Amino acid sequence: MLAPEVVLISDGGGIKQAAPRPITGADKVARFIVGGLGKAEVALTGESTVVNGNPALLVRVDGEIDGVIAIRVEDARITGLYYVRNPDKLTRIESETPLTLR
């Protein structure tokens, strides 16, 4: 459930299409997401993951990584969506960092 004051920030790095400014408000964010999905004439999939300790969705288009959406949740509502599509920032998104104890 989107919080009424939810904010979506996207980053295409000037390489991929992204919103030029933050999108604020549940209605506007929902319209942006649904509008983007409606235009997709490709195989669009998502898989859950964790990014920087936050829940996230790894987005694939035709099997290739298109971006990752990090999700901020407060009081059981989504208050922030951070959609990174910039390929320069996605180079290590699938690599796992092993945790070790010393």
From TrEMBL:
Name of the featured protein: RNA polymerase sigma-70 factor, ECF subfamily
GO MF annotation list: sigma factor activity
InterPro entries linked to this entry: ECF_Sigma-70_Domain (IPR052704), NTF2-like_dom_sf (IPR032710)
Coiled-coil intervals: none
SUPFAM superfamilies with a match to the protein in the record: NTF2-like
